[in-house]
């Protein structure tokens, strides 16, 4: 009996308690991911994907051990761990609801973007976030002070645990490297779906999906990649063409969430056409629909495609955000900015928000912009009613100020007026929608009506300029506000098509309606505007003839959409040439850059 009492039951109970905590926390992640469906979470854990669930538990146990040893207290470690789990799980729930995609490892870098978080989730949730963050900081400081008083034996145990768990976390961090044992354990039962990160998280669990998106090479090395192969491609497309030597102003306008709700099945707009002012211009010029990578988000990825000519579809699935994961690693990166600078243009980026969102300050520096105007440095900052963002009208006034310079201008504007949240922006809303009459939808309709009018007025003002000015305007993605019913009725391209137009203040562009992808914009504009093309743009135009628009599982060809693109031998060669160049720049040796392929 005495031996029974001497047995370390307290330690055993603590260990059992920790295991229970890990299992419950992993179930919490599944709950958040599955929209609070307890049934789905339990079935995932104990019926459908048990092995993957407990692999995720192992990762969480290692993290818990690391956190507790860092803080020097099991009790405080539990509190800190719960704060982390609550924070990440809630963030995943919100992102899945607003943008239909999960939290990625790279998203954690945004934790200090307080302004963005406040605007995205609203004041109440933001205040809760600050409270959790403050509690975490307090625990960190308090535990460090307490840990100094630990006995020598406890300190050594703590250090050993910290070294062990740190080593394991480093190894877990190499999840996507060849021969990683944890990855191999997942691969035995995991069905990875590169084209759908949402399904990856559903099929492998939150932890499995999160690990899958840890750092990886931007692209797999194409078969036959070499300097000789790249030079052959360059030679093929690096052909001179007789074009005008004129240097018109060029303006890019990426309009936040600008799209046409009337194109959606099950939605009928009442109260008039919010895009009437837009259509009065678009119907008379080169315009149509643009294929966006995501629904409800992905702004930076569309911007990356438009400025570089590189497609997100070609990247490894884990390369979720090149602006934060790829571009900052380079001192310079070929883009439209660099091409125009070498032709004597002054280049300016304008974003009426903070500079750190998506690392734009670093990215714009890498692209080579001469100037970056943001909400702090802009002259015009007018807002509409209760809208928390600088209006499109004010942003266009900022653009117009730059056009007064004698040097040819490339101006890249990323607007914010029509950014979420949409509720209660305007006191007088003229529109509603049959099929989804939520407050968010009503305010969104009013938002795009104001945006449409502002664009129309801006283009009319451009007509008065003596210097030729070309404009590319597009919406980056649909807003993530539509009901599940509307989303279900519009699965596929309809949830990814936004409006775009190209405009010439001399009205010399073809009047044509097309479907396109943003990585074609520069090549298409130069072609339509009769400007000298780079070798890379010639390659893009050849690709565009075969696939006018494409993203993962959405390929537009011969006026129809396909989940897999029909390919003949000639088309495959063009696609492989494009793939080779993108790999060469983003992951390879940049042989094409040395051959002036982008000039």
Automatic annotation (TrEMBL):
From what superkingdom does this record's organism come?
Bacteria
| Record's GO cellular component terms | plasma membrane
Q: Where in the cell is the protein located? A: Cell membrane
Q: Which residues cross the membrane?
A: 12-33, 53-71, 78-100, 120-144, 156-174
Tell me the ranges covered by the Sulfatase N-terminal domain, including all copies.
Answer: 248-526
Q: Which UniProt keywords apply?
A: Cell membrane, Membrane, Transmembrane, Transmembrane helix
How does this chain sit within the bilayer? Multi-pass membrane protein
User: Its pathway?
Assistant: Cell wall biogenesis; lipoteichoic acid biosynthesis
Per the annotation, which location comes first and is thus the protein's main one? membrane
Report the protein name in the record: LTA synthase family protein
């Amino acid at each position: 009996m005495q031996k029974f009492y001497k047995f370390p039951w307290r330690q055993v109970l603590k260990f059992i308690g920790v295991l229970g905590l890990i299992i419950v926390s992993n179930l919490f992640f599944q709950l958040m991911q599955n929209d609070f469906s307890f049934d789905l979470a339990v079935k995932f854990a104990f019926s459908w994907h048990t092995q993957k669930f407990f692999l995720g538990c192992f990762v969480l146990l290692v993290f818990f051990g690391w956190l507790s040893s860092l803080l020097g207290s099991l009790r405080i470690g539990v509190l800190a761990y719960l704060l982390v789990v609550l924070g990440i799980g809630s963030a995943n729930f919100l992102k899945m609801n607003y943008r239909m995609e999960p939290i990625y490892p790279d998203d954690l870098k945004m934790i200090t973007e307080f302004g963005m978080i406040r605007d995205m989730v609203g004041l109440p949730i933001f205040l809760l976030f600050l409270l959790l963050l403050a509690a975490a900081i307090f625990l960190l400081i308090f535990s460090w002070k307490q840990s100094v008083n630990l006995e020598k034996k406890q300190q050594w145990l703590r250090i050993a645990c910290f070294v062990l768990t740190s080593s394991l976390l480093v190894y877990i961090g190499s999840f996507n490297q060849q021969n990683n044992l944890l990855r191999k354990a997942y691969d035995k039962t995991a069905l990875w779906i590169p084209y759908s990160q949402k399904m990856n998280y559903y099929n492998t669990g939150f932890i499995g999906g999160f690990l899958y998106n840890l750092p990886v090479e931007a692209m797999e090395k194409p078969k036959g990649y070499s300097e000789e192969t790249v030079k052959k491609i360059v030679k093929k497309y690096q052909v001179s063409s007789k074009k005008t030597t004129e240097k018109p102003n060029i303006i890019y306008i990426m309009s936040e969430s600008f799209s046409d709700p009337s194109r959606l099945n099950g939605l009928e707009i009442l109260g008039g056409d919010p895009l009437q002012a837009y259509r009065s211009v678009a119907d008379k010029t080169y315009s149509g629909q643009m294929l966006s990578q995501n629904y409800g988000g992905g702004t930076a990825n569309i911007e990356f495609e438009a400025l570089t000519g590189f497609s997100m579809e070609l990247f490894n699935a884990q390369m979720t955000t090149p602006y934060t994961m790829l571009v900052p690693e380079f001192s310079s990166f070929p883009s439209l900015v660099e091409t125009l600078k070498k032709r004597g243009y002054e280049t300016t980026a304008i974003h009426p928000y903070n500079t750190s969102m998506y690392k734009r300050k670093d990215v714009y520096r890498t692209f080579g912009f001469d100037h970056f105007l943001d909400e702090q440095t802009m002259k015009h900052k007018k807002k509409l009613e209760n809208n928390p963002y600088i209006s499109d009208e004010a942003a266009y006034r900022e653009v117009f100020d730059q056009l007064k310079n004698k040097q040819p201008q490339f101006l890249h504007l990323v607007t914010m007026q029509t950014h979420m949240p949409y509720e209660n922006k305007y006191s007088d809303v003229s529109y509603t929608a049959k099929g989804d009459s939520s407050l968010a939808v009503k305010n969104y309709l009013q938002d795009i009506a104001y945006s449409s009018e502002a664009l129309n007025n801006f283009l009319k003002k451009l007509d008065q300029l003596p210097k030729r000015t070309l404009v590319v305007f597009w919406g980056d993605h649909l807003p993530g506000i539509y009901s599940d019913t509307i989303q279900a009725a519009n699965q596929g391209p309809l949830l990814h098509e936004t409006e775009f137009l190209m405009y010439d203040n001399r009205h010399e562009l073809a009047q044509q309606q097309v479907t396109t992808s943003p990585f074609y914009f520069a090549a298409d504009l130069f072609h339509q505007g009769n400007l000298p093309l780079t070798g890379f743009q010639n390659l893009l135009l050849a690709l565009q003839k075969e696939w006018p628009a494409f993203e993962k599982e959405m390929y537009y060809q011969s006026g129809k959409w396909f989940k897999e693109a029909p390919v003949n031998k000639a088309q495959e060669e063009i696609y492989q040439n494009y793939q080779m160049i993108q790999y060469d720049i983003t992951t390879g040796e940049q042989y094409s850059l040395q051959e002036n392929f982008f000039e």
